[in-house]
Specification:
Elements: E1 7-8, H1 9-18, E2 24-28, H2 29-48, H3 63-66, E3 77-84, E4 97-100, H4 109-127, E5 133-136, H5 144-150, E6 155-156, E7 162-163, E8 171-178, E9 182-183, H6 208-212, H7 230-236, H8 243-248, E10 252-254, H9 258-261, E11 286-288, H10 289-293, H11 298-304, H12 314-328, H13 335-344, H14 348-361, H15 367-379
Parallel strand pairs: 1-9, 4-10
Antiparallel strand pairs: 2-3, 3-8, 4-11, 5-8, 6-7
Length: 387
C-alpha cells in the first residue's frame, strides 16, 4: 500500500451521487471491524436461540458475518449506500389479491443496485488507478446494518432495520469494500443520531413495531425471531406451513411491511432514487391469487417474475402462500381454481397447503361445491407425494 495516496471522502461521495446514490457514508476499517466484533455476540445468541429457522446461511460460522478481511484482504475503508424505496401511500387489503412488501414492487434490487455499485467502483478505479474493491448487496451474511450505522447513515431501530431520521427505514443498503484509505472529513451533517449503538437507542419510548407485529416476532431485547416473521414465512421458509403459520401471514403473499408502516419515522414521502424500484418495473403492490394459482410450471413462473424478488420463493412457495391467503381471506371464488390445481399438481408442498385451504373454506361453501370438495378431501392423503 506504500505510495498509494489517500482518497478524499468528497471525491468518493461525488462519484456516488453522480450514479444516483446520493446518500452514502464512509467508515474506516478499524471502526467497522470494532462494531462488527461487538455485534458477534448478538449473532451467536440469535443462532443459539434458533431464530434463523430454515435460513442455514445465518447459522454458519459467525466470522463470515463479522470479519471483513475474509471478503477483501487488505481492506482499509467501506463505502455504505442508503437507497430509499419508500412509499407512504396506503395499500389496504384487496379481495382476490395478496399483498407484496414494498421493496419487492419493482425490479430485484440485487440486480439494479448491484449494477449501480459495480459501475461506481469502475468510476473510482478510473479516477484512482490501482484501487481494488468488492461490491455487496445483501448477497453475503455480512452485518451490513451495523456497517451502515457505523458509517453514520442512521441507527438500528427496534424492528432491527436501519432508520435514517428524516427519511425512515424503507430503504436498501449496499456496500463497496475498498483497499485504500479514505480521508473522512469532519461531519457537517445536522443528522441527529443516538450515541449508543444498541438496537432501538434512537426510538425513545416508542414500541409501535413490537406492539403491531402480527406474530410477535420482534422481541423487546432488540432481536427478531425470524421463525415468526411473515417475511421469513412467505419468502425464506421452504417447507410446508404449520396451521398457525398459514393463518399468521394474513393477506401477505410476499414479505410484510407492518413494522415499518407503523414506525413514526416512515410518515414522510421520499423520492425513489433508483427508478427500477418503482412498481412499473415489477409486480406492484398486489398479486392476483387466481393468476398465481394458474401457474402450471416452473418455466411459466420464471417467465412471469423474471428479474423480480419474487423468484426467491420458487413456484411452489408462492402458490403455497397464495393458497394460505385464499383461506385467510375466505376467498371462495378461488375454489374452482384450487380444484383444478389439485387435479394436475404433483408438488407435495402445494398439495399439503391445498388440503389445508380447502378444509378452511369448506364451512362457507354452497352445498353442491361443498360436496365436491368433501369428496376430493376424502381421496387426498397427507402421505402422498401428489394431490
Amino acid at each position: 500500500m506504500c505510495g498509494m495516496r489517500i482518497i478524499p471522502e468528497t471525491n468518493i461521495k461525488t462519484l456516488a451521487a453522480s450514479r444516483g446514490l446520493q446518500i452514502s457514508g464512509i467508515v474506516a476499517v478499524d471502526s467497522a471491524q470494532e462494531a462488527l466484533s461487538l455485534n458477534r455476540s448478538y449473532l451467536e445468541e440469535f443462532q443459539a436461540r434458533g431464530y434463523a429457522g430454515e435460513m442455514q446461511y445465518l447459522a454458519r460460522d459467525p466470522s463470515l458475518a463479522t470479519e471483513l478481511n475474509r471478503y477483501l484482504p487488505g481492506i482499509r475503508s467501506i463505502l455504505s449506500c442508503f437507497v430509499p424505496y419508500n412509499s407512504i401511500q396506503e395499500f389496504p387489503s384487496r379481495p382476490g389479491f395478496g399483498r407484496v412488501a414494498r421493496y419487492a414492487w419493482g425490479k430485484d434490487y440485487h440486480l439494479c443496485l448491484r449494477e449501480k455499485l459495480v459501475t461506481l467502483l469502475g468510476d473510482m478505479q478510473r479516477e484512482f488507478p490501482g484501487l481494488s474493491g468488492r461490491v455487496f448487496t445483501d448477497a453475503v451474511p455480512l452485518l451490513e446494518r451495523v456497517i451502515a450505522q457505523t458509517s453514520k447513515l442512521g441507527f438500528i431501530g427496534r424492528h432491527t432495520l436501519l432508520i435514517r431520521p428524516g427519511i425512515g427505514s424503507f430503504a436498501l443498503l449496499g456496500e463497496i469494500l475498498l483497499d485504500r484509505e479514505v480521508e473522512i472529513a469532519a461531519s457537517t451533517s445536522n443528522l441527529k443520531l443516538p450515541v449508543s449503538a444498541e438496537p432501538g437507542a434512537g426510538c425513545g419510548r416508542c414500541q409501535s413495531c413490537i406492539e403491531s407485529c402480527p406474530t410477535t416476532a420482534i422481541q423487546k431485547d432488540g432481536r427478531l425471531d425470524a421463525r415468526k416473521c411473515i417475511s421469513y414465512l412467505t419468502i425464506e421458509k421452504r417447507s410446508a406451513f404449520l396451521e398457525w403459520e398459514s393463518r399468521a401471514i394474513g393477506d401477505w403473499i410476499f414479505g410484510c411491511d407492518v413494522c415499518q408502516e407503523v414506525c413514526p419515522f416512515n410518515h414522510t414521502e421520499q423520492e425513489i432514487m433508483l427508478k427500477e424500484l418503482k412498481p412499473e418495473f415489477g409486480t406492484g403492490p398486489y398479486l392476483s391469487l387466481k393468476e398465481v394459482l394458474a401457474l402450471e410450471s416452473a418455466a411459466e413462473f420464471n417467465a412471469k417474475f423474471k428479474d423480480t424478488p419474487l423468484l426467491r420463493t420458487k413456484r411452489s412457495g408462492l402458490i403455497r402462500n397464495a393458497l394460505a391467503v385464499v383461506a385467510n381471506t375466505n376467498y371462495l371464488d378461488a375454489t374452482d381454481d384450487i380444484l383444478k390445481l389439485v387435479s394436475i399438481e404433483n408438488d407435495q408442498l402445494i398439495c399439503q397447503q391445498a388440503r389445508l385451504t380447502l378444509n378452511q373454506l369448506l364451512p362457507s361453501l354452497e352445498r353442491s361445491k361443498k360436496q365436491r370438495v368433501e369428496q376430493l378431501l376424502q381421496t387426498l392423503s397427507p402421505e402422498t407425494e401428489s394431490c
